[in-house]
Amino acid sequence: MKKIPFIHILLFLLTLLSTLFVGALQTGADLMKEPGKIYTGFPFAVTLMGILLSHELSHYFMSRKHGVDATLPYFIPAPITIIGTFGAFIKMKSPIITRKALIDIGASGPIMGFIVSVVAVIVGLNMSEVVSFSQTKGVLSLGDSLLFSALSAAILGVTPADHDILLSPVAFAGWIGLFVTSMNLIPVGQLDGGHIAYALLGEKQRRLSLVLVIVLAFMGMFVWEGWLVWAVLLFALGLRHPPVIYWETPLDTTRKVTGWVSFVMFVITFIPVPFAFL
To answer: Considering only CA atoms, which of 56, 52, 87, 85 is closest in space to residue 72?
Structure first.
């Protein structure tokens, strides 16, 4: 008889609660006076949790398919952040033995998260509105990726120079999903992008990791300081990807295409300046 995964369920529920709390605050609810208004956070919380869950479960089921011992997702609640969570992760308890498995496991999460995020952005942008800068003064401004800019233009039209888009909670959750996708797909170390790059490039992936960490460090000094923190963290975690056991097993065309499509996803979702205050 299988044990009930209490810790996974508890962390999921706590993270749902923390994202509900943050989502309600985004709508202007005063939860100290009216705690019952927490329900107003449902659009944001359900969308964001759906994106994170789809990403991690894709990793989990693909790991199981390839015989890799992996845990169910661990969600991390964070009610004091602007999104209510530090994300989620699964732990792999056995090695990935082939490049095919590495591509499947590494790419499945970002691809599924990307799909759900794009749907959320399309739905959410239709619920958003274009407002003048005077209405968003002092508000956190979100950067645009190539994809988000294209979707915004297609759905809302060209935004006038003195206006901005006030995102709905669903669109904001979708924006976060695309941002998380790009962060995961950076081809460094053991990020999802690192798994994919190693499967495609082998030991050349380490040199690519080093170059990208240096690039992120320079971006941190001249573009957005958060990249410097990210570069230091990635360097500390390690640039080298552990070898797979059966490297000689070749990648088929489908998996090669999947790997390169993943890097295209990285390019179109990358945001040079994710956050700024107007």
So the answer is: 56
CA distances to 7, 77, 83 from 21, in Å:
21, 11, 9
Question: At which residue do the structure tokens 């992760």 appear?
Answer: 89
Q: What is the largest CA-CA distance in the chain?
A: 63
Predicted structure pTM score: 0.94
Radius of gyration of the chain (CA): 20
Q: How far is CA 46 from CA 24, 32, 61, 173, in A?
A: 12, 22, 21, 9
DSSP 41: G
Residues with Cβ within 8 Å of 256's Cβ and at least 6 positions away in sequence, in order, are 200
pLDDT digits (tens, 9 = 90+) for 228-274: 999 999 999 999 898 888 888 899 999 999 999 999 999 999 999 99
